[in-house]
Amino acid sequence: MSETKNLNIEIKEEDGISIISIRGFLDANTAPNLEQAVEDIINNNKYKIIVDFSELDYISSAGLGVFMSQIETIRENNGDLKLCRMQSKVYSVFELLGFPMLFDICDEIDQCKKKFENG
Amino acid sequence: MLDISNKKIQILGTFLIVILLSKLLLDNIFYFINLSSIFEITLDAFILLSEFILLYYIIKKSNLDIKIYKKYFKKDTTSEDSLNSKFILHIKILKYLLLIVYIIMIFTPEYYNRIYIENNFYAKIITSILAPIFLAPIFYLVYILLNRSKSNSNTQLKFYVLTIFILFFHLVKIIDYSIITFPGYIIGLILLITNIAVFFISIFVINNNHWIAYQSKKIKYSLILNSLLIIFFLLNISFSTDTLINDYSSSISFTYDYYFYGLSSTVNLISLAGIVIFFRLIVTSIIYLPSSDAFERRQNEMISLASLNKIIAESKDINHITNTVTEIALKMTSSIFAWAEIYENDEIVLSSYHNTSEKYIRQILNDENFNKYRMDCNTLVIDDKVDRSIIASNMNYLKSMIYIPINDDNSKIGAICLVNNKKYNLDEDEYEILKAFSINVSIAFENVRLLKESIENEKYKNELLIAKNIQQNLLPKKVIQFEGYNVDAISIPADDVGGDYYDSVLLENGDKCYLIGDVSGKGIGAAIFMAQIKGMVMSLAPTSTSGKELLCKINSSLYGNIDKNMFVTISTITISNKRNLISYCRAGHTPLAIKKINEKIEFLKPKGFGIGFVNENMFNNNLEEIEVDLDTMDMIFAYSDGLNELRNIDNNEFGYENIRFILDTFKFGSALEINELFLEKAKSYSETLNQFDDLTLLTIFKNRENNE
Description:
Number of strands of chain A: 5
Number of helices of chain B: 22
Strand order of the largest sheet of chain A: 1-2-3-4-5
Helix content of chain B: 55-70%
Strand order of the largest sheet of chain B: 2-1-5-4-3
Number of helices of chain A: 4
Strand content of chain B: 5-15%
Number of domains of chain B: 4
Distance between the termini of chain A: 43 Å
Radius of gyration of chain B: 49 Å
Number of domains of chain A: 1
Shape of chain B: elongated
CATH class of the largest domain in chain B: Alpha Beta
Oligomer: heterodimer
CATH class of chain A: Alpha Beta
């Protein structure tokens, strides 16, 4: 159990929206990497971000903190952080903490994109 | 020095004085009545024997030689070495004893011999005093040789043969004097044969002189000098007389013979043996003299390596190591000066220097060409012909240098530099020793680093242990119990300390509030956060009337005051005193499992944000507190995500289904029993319970007795 599980982060740009695909394990050890990635995007003055969870196997409570840390800055700049394609296990963790009330959580990337278009 | 109180010495001393006095008395009577000399000889032999025994005891019992030995040779030596050192010391003492006798001999005019003969009475007294003094070095010589021969049975045998020859001749002399007078040529022949025998046996008496090879040059010179002096004294004292024709040309031989007939010949023979043995010693010393330098250098190297190992074992400080190591290297290589440099961020930092001034070394370290030359050396370099062009202008005398790199973790962190104004000309062995030295120095440095790290680690571990104790004290040993219910809680951190939390508090209205919580992350950070939460619960509970109010207050205090990515999930289970009502409030925590008789296990998941995520308004508006209807024998089970997210070897989660199943199959028991059951199941699920996350369980069981 103690072996380190990795988190792979891929970032691509589509229609002015940054899409972060995360794969693997999001916990206290790997969270700073994702936090850095999000920060880098914000530092480039891009505030429309979608996180693709489709290949994320596990998320721990510390991993959840990442999404909270930047959301204020993003929203202050008329942007948003939208989450999509979560496995049910991952979703339930978000759900327990009340995230669905804070974030748009969609099934597909396109849905998130549409939400950005609609404002 | 000498223990006079020793009984044996006292008895012997008294005995000696009594015999001496009686001999003086008898001698004078003999002088007048001219009795046969055999009687006289017997008495003489008695005195001589008792004197010998007394002398032997004095030498043996006195720790004289040991004390001087300690003073002279303070350095630690092996037992074999100390035996040799003792021998060298004995030689020195023997020299002084002989010197005393020699001086007495010189200052005693020959005509005293006549006085002795003419004035028998006083002659006897003077002889009785002088003879033991004259005998002392001879006896000491025998003592040394006896001691020396002890180590080897072969040598001892030769020594005994030698003794027999000498005693045999002495016996012949006595017989000649007292019983039958042999013709002079017979005595002469026997003496010649004995002398030749003693000479040849003496050559081989002490065969093993190899120890001299290992002595320093200084000791070899002292051996040669002392032996020469001893031979000189022995020749003068013993051979100044031709005892064969009884022509006493010196007072000393006369004294011997006058004291005890034939003694001078015996002394001569012993002296002959001594002369031969010491002559051999001189020859051996001279033979080994040229190799002294090599031996000394090798010995220095060995001592250096030994002391280096000591430093490695003891040192905790880098500067101390470089200082000592540089000094050792300097001695080992006989360089003119040396310094140690440490490389820090492309800079050369002078660590220590020997035989030179700091200013001078700093000048050298400022020379770029020379620095570059040294930086290019990555292994042990012995350059006996340093390129002129790279040497600093003020170092023109420099002919050769040795560069000993210091490595830590396979990278060069510094070096010891030795310079010389002549070639080092090291042979292969010396190169190997230097190489070993270089490796040892690196090991010393690595050890210091590892030691520091392990000390840090140990310190950290201790602090962690303290933190663990503190945290365990933060969790109540026993949660509040009250009639009708059975409550039990347990928490096991994944690391030494954890971020899980449980507690039981009384609210403002006296309601009992049970809390279970989980702060984000784990380890020390989580533990500190958890302690903060505990403090808040303690201070806010007495002013809260419900679990929800308590959680809202905690969120209000925390929000904006903690890192945005930190949060805590807490569930409260409040049992009201008055209405016997149970309410449940969940701030992001795992759903509460509830087991009702004859019903399916249910997971309650009322709305609620994790604490610290959102502002007061949003939090309060979205936090639900629901009422739970609990009948007798019903049970509620709260847990941290360490349980449902526990993974087995196949990386499958324990999940809610396992919780449901265990609760379903559990028939009846106390809250403690259900917690223990879960722990056991968790352990067998993960096989080792090498937990991934903190694990906390809180069970509330409604007892049968509690019928409203």
